[in-house]
Write a structure and sequence with these properties.
The structure holds two protein chains of two kinds. By secondary structure, chain A is of the alpha/beta class. Chain A is about 40% helix and about 20% strand. In chain A, strand 4, helix 8 and strand 5 form a beta-alpha-beta unit. In chain A, helix 21 packs across helix 22. By secondary structure, chain B is an all-alpha fold. Helices cover about 55% and strands about 0% of the residues of chain B. Classes of the chains: A alpha/beta, B mainly alpha.
């Protein structure tokens, strides 16, 4: 799972990458306290494998202080989207790295505080000067101490000082939306200090990450790129036989499949636990299996060792249709694009078939040995987000409720009657520290019901929220089946005293088709009216995915004028009676 | 064996193999930067399953030096 090509191949491949071949683009800057040649090239190649073109800026050797402090530095003129600041314990601790016990315990403590302070000042300057995300590595812990086994009997030891540095760094940046810590400490635990650090590389060229491990580091920085560009996967689709359990239920029967606390069944239980944990943090699960529905559902509902239950799956396609058609139905039912899906299937033929017809889907190779399935999940970086929101943790439950809504819809004779039965409630909320991460997340991820598809990071939403000329808000939707969370966003630019402009208007696909957009528009028009504004101006920017919103403006009595859509505020706007609107 | 060595150098330095000879050095190969020099030694260590000493690493000024040090580790290069 952890195989990497040699660094030289990354360097070579990076030279063949052409900017015109890629759908997504990002600017990455690298600052470091030591030689990190090869890292930008490795990351460039890793990006290209995800259809991302990265332009890069690598600051000079150990120039990070100068680059951050000088407002006219090349770093700032490059204007990066993400800046990686790679620090190392030797550089930060200086002489104390070798001679930690040449000073008193109090001096060690003061030293850590002083270094944290220096770093916080740099972060402050960085944040004041540009809008890039800043990713700082924490420090690796060397296994060696001159105190040897007595290190553990030493109060505020050398090792304690490093751990204290890491803790203080985290505590100080945890509330900063644009600054994140890359856990280099854990990177070294994963790969081993004797592999990651090599005395000869260090003494010969001040290379503090062994050359073979540079591509591994690049790999683990990829989640920041994926998260920044909003390319996070939303759903894992699993096969059943030999994927969630061992054996074939149709042949081996309920009692014959391998699933339980003992080997070989425990491999599948372990794999299911990893999947369940991902579902608890907002990744949807779905089933795509060729099977008799009754056989398979009996296992899911009744097998004592199934970790995943029916309500963990947002969608189940258990039938004899081909896997490609099922995949299409899953994507349609969940209202998410194929490029948001990851597919786990033990059968290489199925994997190839789906890859052939749906190249957008991420399909990892599952090893022949099921005891290694969980390794595959651990190695995937496709689910990364900078922050987990409440909506993420409740997503699985919300989709299960959605399935119930769909069932209920089948019993209603017409749509309005059905919508009336839902008891829909819309709470309009302003943007604040609690809602900003979710507002940003929705602008980054929403494709279908999105008028302009403008992507905004948290820092941008925060900035808008502080400006008098902007109105930023969101909508939380509830119905009789449960809470859908914050699923609507609007951003209005108050152009002048007569005219406002609808910069962003979107609804999550989860709540589409319930006329909620009318309630949000009603609220915006009301606000404009209260401020004596005469016109609400809007623009529809078509993409390949936002067809569902193309008629919103004409259907809402906006009229076309010079390529824009205009709503005359004096025109009465009607909101469907079955919606309850509250402004918080 | 010489061919294996030249192939590795050609790959790391992104240079045509025909342009390489025992006298090739950082002054004749534009991609032979100090960093690519480290990468080259690292690749040679992996491919020939040896470890250069820091003295050997620092002594590499041209391809002939690499051959000599590989010889010290029992790697015989037949031309």
């Amino acid at each position: 799972m952890d195989y990497e090509k040699p660094l030289s191949e990354y360097i070579l491949d990076s030279q063949k990458i052409d900017i015109n071949d890629y759908e997504h683009k990002i600017k990455l800057a690298f600052l470091s306290s030591f030689t990190i040649n090869g890292l930008s090239e490795s990351l460039k190649v890793k990006c290209s494998q995800k259809q991302i073109f990265s332009s890069t800026y690598v600051a000079g050797y150990n120039q990070y202080n100068q680059e951050i402090l000088d407002e006219k530095s090349k770093l700032y003129s490059f204007s990066p989207d993400i800046t990686f600041l790679i620090l190392d314990t030797r550089s930060i601790f200086g002489d104390l790295f070798h001679f930690p016990y040449s000073v008193t315990k109090l001096e060690r403590k003061n030293f850590v505080d002083e270094k944290i302070n220096d770093l916080l000042n740099l972060i402050k300057k960085f944040n004041e000067t540009n809008t890039s995300k800043l990713i700082i590595t924490n420090l690796g812990l060397p296994h060696y101490s001159p105190h040897g086994i007595a290190e553990m009997n030493t109060s505020y030891s050398f090792h304690d000082a490093i751990i204290d540095f890491n803790k203080k760094l985290k505590d100080n940046v945890i509330e900063m939306n644009s600054v994140h810590i890359f856990d280099f400490f854990k990177f070294v635990i994963k790969h081993g200090e004797n592999n990651v650090f090599n005395f000869q590389n260090y003494l010969f060229g001040d290379i503090k990450i062994a050359l073979d491990y540079i591509p591994h580091l690049a790999n683990e920085l990829m989640p920041y790129v994926i998260s920044f560009l909003g390319l996070t996967k939303k759903c894992i689709v699993v096969d059943l036989d030999n994927t969630l359990w061992g054996g074939i239920v149709g042949e081996d029967g309920f009692d014959g499949i391998r699933l339980g606390p003992q080997p070989p069944g425990n491999s599948f239980m372990e794999f299911q636990k990893y999947l369940k944990a991902l579902s608890q943090r907002g990744i949807l699960l779905a089933i795509n299996s060729k099977n008799n529905f009754d056989d398979a559902i009996q296992i899911i509902r009744e097998h004592p060792h199934m970790i995943l239950k029916e309500d963990n799956f947002a969608c189940m396609k258990i039938n004899w249709n081909d896997k490609v058609s099922n995949m299409k139905s899953i994507s349609e039912e969940l209202n998410i694009g194929l490029d948001s899906l990851v597919f786990f299937d033990d059968d290489p033929v199925n994997r190839e078939l789906v890859k052939e017809f749906m190249p957008e889907i991420t399909i990892p190779d599952l090893p022949h040995d099921p005891s290694r399935y969980s390794e595959v999940i651990q190695s995937l970086h496709d689910f990364s987000v900078f922050q987990i929101t409440n909506e993420d943790t409740n997503r699985g439950k919300m989709y299960f409720q959605q399935k119930q809504r769909t069932e209920s819809k089948k019993h209603s004779t017409n749509l309005t009657e059905f919508l009336k039965t839902l008891n829909l409630e819309i709470d309009i909320k302003k943007s604040d520290n609690f809602t900003i991460p979710r507002i940003s997340q929705l602008t980054m991820k929403t494709n279908q019901f999105n008028l302009t598809t403008k992507r905004y990071h948290e820092e941008q939403i925060k900035k808008f929220s502080e400006e008098d000329k902007m109105l930023v808000g969101c909508a939380q939707i509830r119905d009789k089946f449960g809470d859908n969370g914050i699923t609507g966003v609007f951003i209005v630019e108050k152009t002048n005293s007569n005219e406002w402009f609808l910069d962003t208007f979107l609804l999550s696909c989860r709540v589409m088709g319930r006329e909620i957009e009318k309630a949000i528009l009603y609220h915006i028009i009301n606000e404009a009216r209260k401020n004596n504004v005469k016109r609400l101006k809007a623009k529809f920017i078509p993409t390949i995915k936002n067809k569902p919103i193309e008629n919103l403006l004409p259907d809402s009595n906006f009229s076309k004028e010079n390529g824009f859509w205009i709503y005359n505020i004096e025109t009465p706007f009607n909101m469907p009676e079955f919606l309850t609107l509250r402004v918080k | 064996m010489s061919e294996k060595l030249y192939k590795i150098i050609s790959k790391v330095m992104n240079t045509n193999i025909e342009e390489l000879n025992d006298e090739s050095s950082p002054s004749s190969i534009s991609n032979w930067t100090s960093f690519n020099g480290y990468v080259l030694l690292d690749e040679l260590e992996t491919n020939f399953d040896i470890k250069f000493t820091i003295d050997e690493a620092m002594d590499v000024k041209k391809i002939a030096d690499i051959k000599r040090h590989l010889g010290n580790h029992g790697i015989v290069l037949n031309d």
